[in-house]
Design goal:
The complex is a heterodimer. By secondary structure, chain A is an alpha+beta fold. Helices cover about 30% and strands about 40% of the residues of chain A. Chain A has a four-stranded antiparallel sheet with strand order 2-3-1-4, covered by helices on one side. The longest helix of chain A is centred in the C-terminal third of the chain and has 15 residues. A six-stranded parallel sheet of chain B has the order 3-2-4-5-7-6, sandwiched between helices. In chain B, strands 11-10-9-12-13-14 form a six-stranded parallel sheet, sandwiched between helices. About 0% of the residues of chain B have low confidence. By secondary structure, chain B is α/β, with parallel strands linked by helices. The longest helix of chain B is centred in the first third of the chain and has 16 residues. In chain B, helix 17 links the parallel strand 15 and strand 16. The structure holds thiamine diphosphate and magnesium ion (MG).
Chain lengths: ~180, ~600
């Protein structure tokens, strides 16, 4: 009965050591009352991360919603999240779009920038490089509309910060799988 | 055969159509229309509990002891919130319940109306699924779906919240007809290739063990029969969780006793040293595994479970078979037979010799006394004096629960009802009432603690009203014994608020309810007192005054491994500093 030395965590040493990965999960669910609360509640109740979440009905005739969730965690946590989601009664299908690079992700952002003179010119130039559109303009401000991968939007926002970033509104990620097959 | 009727009538019709013959409930404004329908029929027997928590636990006891779904009916607001503990209990232990709650009329929802609460919001996390039915057109479908979801796949509680105006509204009811859920279709059969692989692994194992859980019970009695067959075919040893007791008979040769925190020396050591673990309908709960990174380090693990999310949740396994354990066990028995498999006889012999050595340690032994009743002795005597009857045991939560699991032996499934996952004090008496209603001619005993029993003692009135002869066998140690034991082990014996001060006189309490009270202090008089309890045709509160400072052993202290158990004689006579046994990290655990 000689036990090995105490582990760093009383629960599981292995879990803590696993690499944290970012994954995008696509959830197809019946659009019934409370379905979003169930999904969100599952994440908060079990201590999983949500980095972004988008939801909209995608097949009106069948009342099917697609919920796209960006989450992060160790690979076994991501697996667990997937199976926990599958267990929800209204959920039809859960796909991990980050597996094997099969997912295509886009996000839309609106970015408000305030400034005069040189800053204004800088902002316009950068916007052009990022293919951002101007959707509102005053003599001292712009609102840019931009779509792309979340990382691209992050980059754009970072560049606008010193120029005069006021605020950002982002939709969260919408994702779909590449190729002819459905997700 | 669709018929037009009111929503309230639909509820009762659906109960009938789904074979519900007993409904536990408590009335109130928001369910009056349903109560009015109940008044005018006889097919569904309504049992008036004394607290809605009692309704939920009674429905659990009914379900667990009969293999059927448990049903309850409560009013809105406080009626619904009072069920939350019972629903959570059922969720943790995978008990199929359908709970109908009344709700304020649809036009008042959201207005903070009298006795309004967000029932579906509150119960979302403690049900398998729930519904708020806002239109009479949905009611029939939702009711059928509720029964389907509660009983299919991994069972669990389902709430159907019905506003009062929907109960009055008229609509069309159609009986259930091949109810299917458009999305929820759990996988029942295991993958054949994986089952073959599992059988191959089993045939070449040298130190195998079956580790089975509540899933075997939930799957229905064929699963228990098949499990026995597979154990007999393979000659492997078997242990079980608290929830799985009875699936394999305690009198069987291959039985090692319960495993886990208060499991036997042989079960835990065999789990630690095995080379192949076959987990069937069990979920690697922390009470079972002890310290995770030292859990059965050298074994390959096969996990059979109907819930995909239970696999690799706590312990990574080598082979996972998703499916109903009845179906999978059937296939395993078939494959084992058809391929004329036989286990490595010689090797298994070595394994069994090792196990016999561990058995020789007699880890459940205790030092008996002729002066004071030892709680273990009390359970032993209760077992000996009732084992020839068809006896159903429920428990509360604490030391008495563990002693019941260790010293009462179960040879059949569905005869043991205890709150395993949630550990709910107050479960046992209402659960006993539920079990008694499912088995009117049988003996039902709640093995209780003096603290726990006070949590749902009001249900004694229910037992009296319906002449349910449940026996409550209180191991009265005047302590919240399990709390006291942990305070002794972890907190330097500072017994903060764990003494059962100001206890009622249980004999007088029984009499006040109209039940019989029996008290016993003396080991020599115990048998006669138990017989007095058994001979009485009606509910009995038995105040069994036991040794106050007895600890429950064996024990794997929190944060320790299976092969690092505390055994009874280690700590007897306070010869050892128990506080030193658990390290700082273990103290953080529950
Ligand atoms: C509702 C609830 N509250 C608190 C606890 C924590 N708890 C676990 S065991 C226990 C003491 C039980 O005392 P008793 O019923 O006398 O049983 P004993 O351990 O003495 O056999 C307590 C308070 C619990 N399990 N359930
Ligand atoms: Mg006690």
């Amino acid at each position: 009965m000689n036990a090995p030395a105490s582990p760093p965590s009383p629960y599981s040493a292995s879990k803590a050591q696993s690499k944290i990965e970012q994954h995008t999960l696509s959830v197809l669910a019946d659009n019934e009352p409370g379905v979003l609360a169930r999904v969100v509640g599952l994440f908060s109740g079990r201590g999983y991360n949500i980095e972004s979440l988008t939801v909209a009905e995608v097949v009106h005739a069948e009342h099917l919603s697609r919920i796209t969730i960006r989450t992060s965690g160790a690979p076994e946590t991501i697996d667990q999240i997937r199976h926990q989601l599958e267990r929800l009664v209204p959920v039809r299908q859960v796909t991990d779009l980050s597996e094997g690079g099969k997912g295509l992700e886009r996000e839309l952002a609106m970015v408000k920038v305030r400034g005069r003179g040189e800053n204004r010119a800088d902002a316009l130039q950068l916007a052009d490089a990022f293919r951002a559109r101007i959707v509102d303009a005053t003599t001292e401000s712009f609102i840019f509309e931009l779509t792309g991968k979340p990382e691209k939007i992050d980059e754009f926002v970072d560049l606008m910060r010193p120029i005069g970033l006021v605020e950002v509104s982002r939709t969260g990620v919408a994702a779909i799988s590449r190729g002819p097959q459905p997700i | 055969m669709s018929k037009e009727m009111t929503g309230a009538e639909m509820v009762v019709e659906a109960l009938k159509d789904h074979g519900v013959d007993v409904l536990f409930g408590y009335p109130g404004g928001a369910v009056l229309p349903i109560y009015d329908v109940l008044f005018q029929q006889e097919a569904v027997r309504h049992i008036l509990v004394r607290h809605e928590q009692g309704a939920a636990h009674a429905a659990e006891g009914y379900a667990r002891s009969s293999g059927k779904v448990g049903a309850l009916l409560v009013t809105s607001g406080p009626g619904a919130t009072n069920t939350v503990t019972g629903l959570t209990d059922a969720l943790m232990d995978s008990i199929p319940l359908v709970c109908i709650t009344g709700q304020v009329p649809t036009h008042l929802i959201g207005s903070d109306a009298f006795q309004e609460c967000d029932t579906v919001g509150i119960t979302r996390h403690c049900t398998k699924h729930n519904y708020l039915v806002k239109s009479i057109d949905d009611l029939c479908r939702v009711l059928h779906e509720a029964f389907y979801v509660a009983t299919n796949g991994r069972p669990g509680p389902v709430v159907v919240d019905i506003p009062k105006d929907v109960q009055f509204a008229r609509g069309v009811y159609a009986p259930p007809h091949n109810v299917q859920h458009k999305t929820y279709n759990p996988q029942m059969d295991g993958d054949t290739a994986l089952i073959r692989e599992a059988v191959r692994m089993m045939a070449s194992a040298q130190k195998p063990i079956f580790y089975t859980g509540g899933g075997v019970i939930n799957s229905g009695s064929p699963a228990s029969t098949l499990l026995r067959e597979l154990v007999a075919l393979t000659g492997f040893p078997i242990t079980s969780t608290l929830m799985g007791l009875g699936a394999y008979p305690a009198s069987g040769d291959a039985w090692l006793g319960m495993l886990g925190m208060h499991g036997t020396f042989e079960a835990n050591n065999a789990m630690h040293d095995c080379d192949l673990m076959i987990a069937v309908g069990a979920r690697f709960d922390d009470r079972i595994t002890g310290r995770l990174d030292a859990f059965s380090p050298g074994s390959k693990k096969i996990h059979i479970d109907i819930d995909r999310s239970s696999i690799n949740k706590n312990v990574k396994v080598d082979l996972a078979i998703v499916g109903d354990c009845g179906h999978v066990l059937e296939a395993m028995v078939r494959v084992w037979r058809s391929e004329a498999m036989h286990a490595e006889k010689q090797q298994l012999g070595d394994w069994w010799r090792q196990i016999d050595q561990w058995r020789g340690r007699k880890s459940l032994a205790f030092r008996n006394s002729d002066k004071v009743i030892k709680p273990q002795y009390a359970v032993q005597r209760l077992y000996e004096l009732t084992k020839d009857k068809d006896v159903y045991i429920t428990t509360e939560v604490g030391q008495h629960q563990m002693w019941a699991a260790q010293h009462f032996h179960f040879d059949e499934p569905n005869h043991w009802m205890t709150s395993g996952g949630l550990g709910t004090m107050g479960y046992g008496l209402p659960a006993a009432i539920g079990a008694q209603l499912a088995h009117p001619g049988s003996l039902v005993v709640d093995i209780a603690g003096e603290a726990s029993i006070l949590m749902c003692i009001q249900e004694l009135s229910t037992a009296i009203q319906y002449r349910l002869p449940v026996k409550v066998f209180i191991l009265n140690n005047e302590y919240m014994g399990m709390v006291r034991q942990w305070q002794e082990l972890l907190h330097g014996g500072r017994y903060s608020h764990s003494y059962s001060e100001a206890l009622p006189d249980f004999v007088k309490l029984a009499e006040a309810f109209g039940a019989k009270g029996v008290r016993c202090y003396d080991p020599a008089g115990l048998d006669a007192a138990i017989k007095e309890m058994l001979d009485y045709d009606g509910p009995v509160l038995f105040d069994c005054v036991v040794e106050k400072s007895e600890n429950c052993f064996p024990m794997i202290p929190s944060g320790k491994a299976h092969n690092d158990m505390l055994l009874a004689d280690l700590s007897d006579d306070a010869g050892i500093e128990l506080g030193a046994v658990i390290d700082e990290k273990g103290k953080m655990l529950v």
